[in-house]
Amino acid sequence: MRRITAFGRFWWDFVVGDDWLAAAGIAVAIGATAAIAADGVAAWWLLPLATVLVLYVSLRRATAA
Amino acid sequence: MTAGFLVLSAFLASAVEMVEALTIVLASGVARGWRSSLTGVAAAVVVLAAVTAALGPALTVIPIDALRLVVGALLLVFGLQWLRKAILRASGFKALHDEDAIFAEELAGAQTAEHVERAGVDWYGFTLSFKGVLLEGLEVVFIVLTFGSTQGSIPLAALGAAVAVVLVAGIGIAVRAPLARVPENTMKFAVGVMLTTFGIFWATEGAGGHWPGSDASLPVVLVFVIASSAALVGLLRRRHAVLVAA
């Protein structure tokens, strides 16, 4: 059990890293892109803007600590 | 254009990771003997080759839109990690990576560790090299496989990585010292920018979005990510200067 937990934690740290909120923000932005695109509306602009916003918030959190 | 990005991204990411792995292998070799250190390297390379052989073909059978969505999302999250750390280092909020200091730290740890021999090799030296090469190498494998499979050319991405591995290993053997003069943060910044750019591009396509001008918009996304990151570095530098002055 401990090995499975350690394995899961390794992959979590490997992909998500220090700030899980940034990963969650990106997931929400991709979901919103899919929802907008499904309605036939141009959605290409959303992810670049959301990424910069997520990065900004993540950096603010990191430097506030 | 995208082929160039692909090779360059794989090359830069691999070079950065190999510089870090080289520091650990050198410390292990100097303190615990080259036999155990190089056996650890060889064992890690075998594991990495097995991971690549298992995952590579599996990725190529996934439908391209699903692959781009998953890989794009992963690259974006992964790239933001690199970019975040590089921006924090460039703005002074995080110490720059110092290979000389890391080498000294690893060397001190390796010199004081107990000598335990298993299967004819020093166990500490073996595991230190094995873990170092495996962990740094996994990032290279991840980048090569995700970039390569999404662009439909794993060999091209592997070429970029192979050139970096040969180059870093060659210089490492020649100078027998940590490559402290490699501009690691600049390279990490570049890798973070490229991973984030490809992540944005592919995740948008995978989610059903269409880029104006198709592949031609990739350089525009790249410029946007570079400009935004540079602006964030400037913003944080000013903030750091205010905090230091206070």
Order of helices and strands of chain A: HHH
Q: Major beta sheet of chain A, specifics?
A: none
Rg of chain B is 20 Å
The helical percent of chain B reads over 70%
Shape of chain A: flat
Question: What is the strand arrangement across the widest sheet of chain B?
Answer: 1-2
Based on secondary structure, the structural category of chain B is mainly alpha
What portion of residues of chain B belong to β-strands? under 5%
Biggest interface found: A-B, 32 and 38 residues
N to C succession of SSEs of chain B:
HHHHEEHHHH
Largest sheet of chain B: 2 strands, antiparallel
Strand content of chain A: under 5%
Q: Alpha-carbon distance between the termini of chain B?
A: 47 Å
Number of domains of chain A: 1
Oligomeric nature of the chains? heterodimer
Q: Level of helix content of chain A? A: over 70%
Number of helices of chain A: 3
Low-confidence stretches of chain A: none
Layout: helices, strands, pairs:
The complex is a heterodimer of chains A (65) and B (246).
Chain A lengths: L1 H14 L4 H19 L7 H19 L1
Helix pairs in contact in A: 2-3
Chain B lengths: L1 H31 L1 H27 L3 H27 L8 H14 L4 E2 L2 E2 H29 L2 H22 L8 H23 L11 H28 L1
Antiparallel strand pairs in B: 1-2
Helix pairs in contact in B: 1-2, 1-4, 1-5, 1-6, 1-7, 2-5, 3-5, 3-7, 3-8, 5-6, 7-8
Task: Describe what you observe in this structure.
By secondary structure, chain A is mainly α. Chain A has helices spanning 2-15, 20-38, 46-64. Chain A has one domain (17-64). Chain B is mainly alpha-helical and 246 residues long. Chain B contains 8 helices and 2 strands. In chain B, strands 1-2 form a two-stranded antiparallel ribbon. In chain B, a hairpin with a 2-residue loop joins strand 1 and strand 2 (121-122). In chain B, helix 1 runs parallel beside helix 6. Chain B is globular. The interface between A and B is medium-sized, with 32 and 38 residues.
